[in-house]
Amino acid sequence: MADEVVLLNTWASPFGIRVRIALDEKSVEYQYREENLQDKSPLLLQMNPIHKKIPVLIHKGKPICESLAIVQYIDETWKDDKAPPLLPSDPYQRAQARFWADYIDNKVFSSVGGILRSPKGEEQEKAKKEFIEGLKVLEEELGDKAYFGGDNFGFLDLSFVALYSWFYALETLVNFSLEAECPKLIEWAKRCIEKKETVAKSLPDSLKMYDYALQIRKRLGVD
Description:
Elements (H helix, E strand, L loop, with lengths): L4 E5 L4 H12 L5 E4 L7 H6 L8 E4 L2 E4 L1 H11 L13 H27 L4 H21 L12 H7 L5 H8 L3 H4 L1 H13 L1 H4 L5 H15 L3
Parallel strand pairs: 1-2
Antiparallel strand pairs: 1-3, 3-4
């Protein structure tokens, strides 16, 4: 029990999906606990008293919070020759991967929130424009590489591919085509799903995610 690993999460969270992929990449056995964010469990409030949000990884009774920090913790804690490191070994490349993961959180994910929270009209169109611009920057960073780190799937790939299940919902809500706007990114995402079972089994169904997005907008009173 001392080494028990528990993940507190909710199924639709791309941040939690990151953690699930990382745990599976490292073949870590863990207990999954689904959280109701409208009625948070005493365990979640105890383990993340500052932000009171998911995901939270509990290892040896101690909590690790914030998805990127959790993924790095997993990478450093479970080292196995059969599971290559998620972060690059080179310090500069490792710093670059962290920089771009931070960009995804602060530029791309934030504009997703803008799309979901904004009523149809000028404000939502602004969020849509920011989202597409952010993706184009990432597509340029990807270039012609198979994965963001080169030939191998890694930290930055799992940081971003976790958002893939939201793509259909976002396209439908604001009427655009990601494949038309960023074809290389869509090819990359499909490659991740095809080549990595850890990704394919962690991503929720896109139609289910669209229904969830509609529920969010209804709850916020924007539709």
